[in-house]
Amino acid sequence: MNPFVDLFKTPWFWSAFCGWTLAQCIKMTVDLVRTGRLDLSYLVSTGGMPSAHSALVSGLATAIGLTEGFGAPTTMLAVCLAGITMFDAAGVRNAAGHQARILNKLLDELFHEHRLNESRLKELLGHTRLEVFVGMLTGILVAMLVVSRWPAA
Description:
The protein is elongated, with a radius of gyration of 19 Å. The protein is about 70% helix and about 0% strand. The chain has a domain at about 15-90 and about 125-150. About 30% of the residues are buried. It is built from 6 helices and no strands. The protein starts with a helix and ends with a helix.
């Protein structure tokens, strides 16, 4: 049996993947309702409600905890990974997005007063705490559903 294929046969993979996918699809659907057009770039975008990164790592940590026990070293490792990822999403990447907005405003002012090449920075990099929290809840709920439906070994 191919060990790589075994990855796709675990509730851990499917909890993480489905958590991320659901969060990205929610963002895409909200934008579709808001704008009336389907933007598939939301499937790979960063930022927005809910945080797909938070959903992925929370889904993984929850699935590992539910199957291996919440006191297991692998669960502790997954919980630490989730914590670092969510802290980064709400902290460092959010601050970088704020800086990008300020720099883009400066570029707009400079561009309109002078003839310069306008190159914009991506502003939606991180998340608010609420977006991270909702992403975390999404991941936890998806993992609980996946693990509860997973065939017993």
